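Final report, closing paragraph on structural work. Over the funding period we assembled a curated collection of sequence-structure pairs, and we close with a single example.
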Amino acid sequence: MSWQLAHSQDKSIVGIYMGQALPGRSFNERLLEPITMQAPPIFLAYRKEPGVVGDNHDPAHGQKVVQKYKELGLGSRAELVHSLSDTKNSEVMQFLPKFVRSLGTQKR
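Its predicted structure, as stored:
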């Protein structure tokens, strides 16, 4: 799913789950502009730590997204996990079932 579509305010999009999101040069601050008070809940998962060298999937980009949610007072709708490579399960999709279940309890 594209970043623009995810933040299009389409009523059928009730949540955003992304693994290894916003890689390398694809990230710039303008990507934060579509995040508004109507933004759906978001969960971002990364295998490496923020500031990682040699991997363009840097959680630091996702941290900027979470910060934008917090600035809008939506911090409870944004979650990020990183350093999954340091755990026994580095699969970025492992949190998807729990995230989907949580969508039924959140109001927009």
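The CA atoms of residues 42 and 78 lie 5 Å apart. Residues 41-108 form one domain. We thank the funder for supporting this effort.
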